[in-house]
Every structure is written in C-alpha cells, then in structure tokens.
Amino acid sequence: MANTLKKDIGLALLRIVPSALLLTHGIPKFQKLIGGDFEFGDPIGIGATPTLFLAVLGEFLCPILLILGFKTKWAAIPPALVMAVAAFVVHSADPFGVKEKALLFLGFFIVIFLLGPGKYSLDKD
C-alpha cells in the first residue's frame, strides 16, 4: 500500500473515530436543547443556555462536519475548546483519570486541526 494511501486512510480514521465517539456525548445534549430543557452547568460564567448551545456545537454539530470532512480545520476548533474547558475547568480539581478522556479528545482535535482532513473528505485536502 502506498504511503499516501496509508496517510489518507489514517487521516480519515483520525477524523471519524474520535468524532463518532464524541457524538455519544453530544446527542443527549442536542436532545436536551431541542426538548427545551436548558438546565445545564455554567463553568465559564456565560449562563446555562449559552453553555449548552456551545456544548452542542462542539460535541454534536462539529463532529458531524468532521466525520464528513467539511470545513475540517474550522470544525475541529469548537470540540477542542469544549474539551479544554472540560479538562481544565470542569475537572480541574479531579484526578488525572477523570480528566483523561477530555485530554485525549483535546489532543485528537488539535491534531486534526494541524493536519487537515486528508483525501477522503469533502474538503479533499
């Protein structure tokens, strides 16, 4: 298998797998939002409803864009920011094992931002 093919498959997996996993956290938040239940945490002091909206953007909408490989570099920023807040604000006092998942997601989305979507995407980088 040629190195370019391996690289493009690797970039596709790097986009798709973490994004699909993050959707498992975003779908319940999206359902909460469209159901009209705006009760949510407010770790950065902007209010529960705006925080929920931003969480849905970062954990639901942007992962869908990343799976498709559409506007990939831009779509990687909100999930990275949401995971940074989760790791460094929400779980700041927690042991490493609690914040580890958020840090892994943060790392994935930073790498996606840096490397781009690859050939198997709507962006076709």
Could you describe the 3D structure shown?
There is one protein chain. The chain is mainly alpha-helical and 125 residues long. The chain has one domain. 73% of the residues lie in helices and 0% in strands. It contains five helices and no strands. Helix 1 runs antiparallel to helix 2 and helix 1 packs across helix 5. It starts with a helix and ends in a 10-residue tail after the last helix.
List the SSEs and their pairings.
Blueprint: H1 3-34, H2 48-68, H3 72-75, H4 77-90, H5 96-115
Helix pairs in contact: 1-2, 1-5, 2-4, 4-5
Q: Domains counted in the coordinates: how many? A: 1
Q: Given the structure, what is the number of helices?
A: 5
Main beta sheet, described? none
Strand content: under 5%
Strand tally: 0
Taking all Cα atoms into account, the compactness measure Rg is: 15 Å
Question: Which short descriptors sum up this protein?
Answer:
5 helices, 73% helix, mainly alpha, 125 residues, 0% strand
Quick structural summary:
With 125 residues, the chain is mostly helical. Helix content is 73%, strand content 0%.
